[in-house]
Write a structure and sequence with these properties.
The chain is mainly α. The protein is 78% helix and 0% strand.
Length: 270
């Protein structure tokens, strides 16, 4: 009697790990529409909440500026030069803070859309990417607010001369937006190196060998982003960038070791 055909266990495992493969193209479009609508609702709610809290948040944001003015023995007041200047600031700040508050929901919606088409180990990688990219971005903003911003503002208001500064709240907001978002993006360096290493574009040996070129790029970026011309501020800006570069070297080393382990395991299986 002939043996009955054995079920394709590989296909079964793949089907279990890729439930999105069973979805039709139309189902994917419906799911994408659902995720976009949920994300827009979250952003809209976040903007409303951000606008309601914007006056308190603006008070938190201007604190480093008023502290720097008091330290320089100047009037610790910021001004606006347009009748709707402060209202525009509240709306703008509410929009930005609302988007930030809604980002966890937006990232979750993105995850819900892409997760069904991924293997289990790929899902873990994407989850780690979302978590670490968010943590690093917030760490960059925290570094900018608590360390970089007070030093920069003290340096800027120290040049009083024969005139007294009247600082516009809108121009101050543009300045801190540049510093905080710039540092938030700079702190994503290890994530960028992770993807470059994942696709085999860079290796730990290559990163260490070309460190002098990386230092040149870091210096240029610091010179562009740093809002003051003094070398000390530039060095403070460069310090975390150098540390993040070496953190990226460590990340690339881990990625390389895992790729080698999987290749070795695959070779032994064959």
């Amino acid at each position: 009697m002939a043996d009955s055909p054995q079920p394709d266990t590989t296909a079964q495992v793949r089907a279990e790990e890729e439930p999105g493969a069973r979805m039709s193209f139309f189902d994917h479009l419906v799911d994408l529409r659902k995720r976009i609508i949920n994300s827009l609702i979250a952003i809209g709610v976040g903007m409303v909440v951000g606008f309601l809290l914007s006056e308190r948040l603006v008070g938190f944001i201007v604190r480093p500026m008023t502290a720097a003015l008091r330290e320089a023995h100047l009037a610790d007041k910021l001004i606006y030069t347009h009748p709707a200047g402060y209202l525009n600031l509240l709306i703008t700040f509410g929009v930005y803070s609302g988007i930030v508050m809604a980002m966890p929901v937006v990232l979750y919606q993105i995850w819900q859309f892409v997760a069904p088409g991924l293997y289990k180990h790929e899902r873990r990688a994407v989850t780690g990417f979302i978590f670490f990219s968010t943590v690093l971005f917030l760490a960059g903003i925290a570094f900018g607010y608590f360390i970089m911003l007070p030093y920069v503002l003290r340096f800027l208001v120290s040049f009083k001369g024969p005139v007294e500064p009247l600082i516009s709240i809108n121009e101050y907001f543009d300045l801190i937006l540049l510093i905080l978002l710039g540092l938030g993006l700079v702190f994503e360096t290890p994530i960028l190196i992770f993807f470059l290493a994942l696709f085999g574009i860079v290796t730990p040996k290559m990163l260490l060998k070309n460190f002098r070129y990386a230092m040149l790029v870091i210096t240029i970026v610091a010179a562009i982003v740093t809002p003051t011309p003094d070398a000390t501020t530039m060095l403070i800006f460069m310090a975390p960038m150098v540390l993040l570069y070496f953190a990226g070297v460590l990340v690339s080393y881990i990625v390389l070791r895992r790729k080698q382990s999987r290749a070795l395991a695959g070779g032994e299986a064959h």
